[in-house]
Amino acid sequence: MKTKILLFGLVFSYFAFTSCTSDSDSSTSTVTADDVAANQTMDNSIDDVSLIAEDQYEVSEGSTTGKIEGNYYSIRPDCATISDLGSTTTVRVYTITFGTSTTACLFRGHLLKGQIILTRTIGTTFPKTMTVTFNNFYINNNKLEGTSTWKREMIDAGTVNARPKTTFTMTNMTLTTTAGVYTRNGERVREMTAGFSTRTSPTDDVFSTTGTFTTTFPNGSVYTSLIQTPLVHKTACSLLQTPMPFPVSGILKLSKNDHYATIDYGTGDCDNLAMRSIDGGTATQITLGNN
User: Fold this and answer.
1) Is the CB of residue 86 less than 8 Å from the CB of residue 93?
2) Distance (Å, rounded) from C-alpha 237 to C-alpha 270?
3) From 6, 124, 186, 282, which residue has the greatest number of CB atoms within 10 Å?
4) CA 231, 232, 235, 240 torsion-angle sign
5) In which region does residue 185 sit, left (phi positive, over 0), alpha (psi from -120 to 50) or beta (all else)?
6) For residue range 50-96, what is the model confidence (pLDDT) as tens digits?
7) What is the pLDDT of residue 199?
8) Exposed/middle/buried for 122, CB within 10 Å: 0-12, 13-18, 19+?
9) pLDDT at 204 over 60
10) Domain residue spans in the chain?
């Protein structure tokens, strides 16, 4: 048995979470490369949290019938520690602490610091719920705050095709960067499409993410992210020596007023490349990053 790594895309996606290199776009009406990069930087942050939250659910309880501690593969890095805040027979409350007061914790190429607090229901009846909150939590020196509500269901429970589906609802989640405060609201749904039956290794895990959410930028502009075709993540890509925690396929549409950009993540390869089109124009290749 093993930890089921989501995508928190999720998620929290989604919560496909990448950052694109900027270009010389200067128009204030179209969706620029910098807009795409800023939006996906927040995607990266929320996705890291989502993966860890799902991971610790699996480690502490398991799937449809529970688990024996230690039988799951855990993605939690050694520099992150778990403490119990007063769990009961019906509710578990865990705090995950990343790094120390002076050092950060490396996860998927990102530096995490501070605490994530997980409060969730216990039992074998689905759906199950979990609330994710934060205490002085930073990703690459960007502060993440707010609340994510997590709902886990099982598809085809009790059969050889059993697999989890997790819905992340984001409510006023904020990411404070040097450019200002970004606010995220919306929902991501991530379903495991491969790997659930081989649960002592994550290398064959595949996830499909859908959903719609909005991001309010520091200047007040509101962008809508719509996953037009499911974003597919392969866990094996995140385990490479140089992590590639990006979608391997799927299309994301980022809209502002009457303008939009579409990001096509490819046809299944573990890489950091995607194709971007502005307002339906000719697509150009972009490089995804870890901001």
Assistant:
1) yes
2) 5
3) 6
4) negative
5) beta
6) 777 777 776 666 554 333 344 556 777 888 888 887 788 888 888 99
7) 64
8) middle
9) yes
10) 19-289
Q: What is the pTM of this model?
A: 0.78
| pLDDT (mean) for 159-182 | 89
Instruction: For residue 253, give the nearest of 242, 244, 243, 264 by alpha carbon.
Output: 264
Among 238, 159, 167, 229, residue whose Cα is nearest residue 196 = 159
Is the pLDDT confidence value at 114 over 80? yes
- Give dist(CA 239, CA 202) in Å, integer: 9
3-state secondary structure the chain: CCCCCCCCCCCCCCCCCCEECCCCCCCCCCCCHHHHHHHHHHHHHHHHHHHHHHHHHHHHCCCCCCCCCCCCCCCCCCCEEEEECCCCCCEEEEEEEECCCCCCEEECCEEEEEEEEEEEECCCCCCEEEEEEEEEEEECCEEEEEEEEEEEEEECCCCCCCEEEEEEEEEEEEEEECCEEEEEEEEEEEEEEECCCCCCCCCCCEEEEEEEEEEECCCCCEEEEEEEEEEEEEHHHHCCCCCCCCCCEEEEEEEECCEEEEEEEEECCCCCEEEEEECCCCCEEEEEECC
Residue 264 predicted with pLDDT over 90: yes
* Cα–Cα distance for residue pair 40/249, rounded to 1 Å: 15
- C-alpha 139/C-alpha 90 separation (Å) is 31
C-alpha to C-alpha distance for 43 and 11, rounded to whole angstroms: 9
The single residue listed with the structure tokens 């939590």 is: 137
Q: Quick one: CA dihedral 39, 270, 74, 197, positive or negative?
A: positive
Binned at pLDDT 50, 70 and 90, residue 97 comes out as: very high
Q: How many residues does the chain have?
A: 291
